[in-house]
């Protein structure tokens, strides 16, 4: 069963890599400008382990309660929190995440900074936490994200915590809208952010259905689940 699953993942990975490479060529960009994060939500830790064997280095999860045990089981990967994050999960997330891509409020920034301080005092981690600000491209509070006109203020708060390291922006294209137009807006927001925060160069945008449009508009990180792992399976225990 494991051999069959590994072969399936290998074939899917080859297809995704071909799509990324083609999109980079079409945009006049180098393939190594775009990082692939495999989104393993609802799939077992064994899939993450197989992806690691296939050369995948970065994986993402949407829920802390699912991610924490997986990260403990497959510690050799870089784990990213990409889903909406409740403040009361900050301490747990800081224990396993290399990066949080869904920071979208001052209160969450404060909770994460406090969690990093506590983890440092407990000698659990000795590095700041890398974070991306999730930008809202549709102003829908149910989907999370910081309004574009508030990005600058939140970025300033993040950089002054000392415990958080601002790496850039993340966004999800609005439902039912042209993803290219949304990613163009995100690109402009990223340019504005980098005027004051030149090290915040990461732009996490693009998923299974719209990664090409995201890469065209400057995405440096695509988050791919379905095209890589297949339809959503049962959550791992």
- Helix and strand string, N-terminal first? HEHEHEHEHEHEHEHEH
Globular, elongated, flat, extended or rod-shaped: what is the shape? globular
CA gyration radius, whole angstroms: 17 Å
Per CATH, the class reads Alpha Beta
What structural class do helix, strand and pairing data support? Answer: alpha/beta
Give the number of domains. 1
Low-confidence stretches: 233-237
Rounded average pLDDT: 94
Question: Which CATH architecture would you pick?
Answer: Alpha-Beta Barrel
Helix proportion: 40-55%
- Measured between the Cα atoms of the first and last residue, the distance is 19 Å
The counted number of beta strands is: 8
- The CATH homologous superfamily corresponds to Alanine racemase
Biggest β-sheet: strands ordered side by side in the sheet: 7-6-5-4-3-2-1-8
At CATH level 3, the topology is: TIM Barrel
Total helical segments:
9
Largest sheet: 8 strands, parallel
Strand content: 15-25%
Function: Pyridoxal 5'-phosphate (PLP)-binding protein, which is involved in PLP homeostasis.
Modified residues (N6-(pyridoxal phosphate)lysine): 41
InterPro entries: Ala_racemase_N (IPR001608), PLP-binding_barrel (IPR029066), PyrdxlP_homeostasis (IPR011078)
Keywords: Pyridoxal phosphate
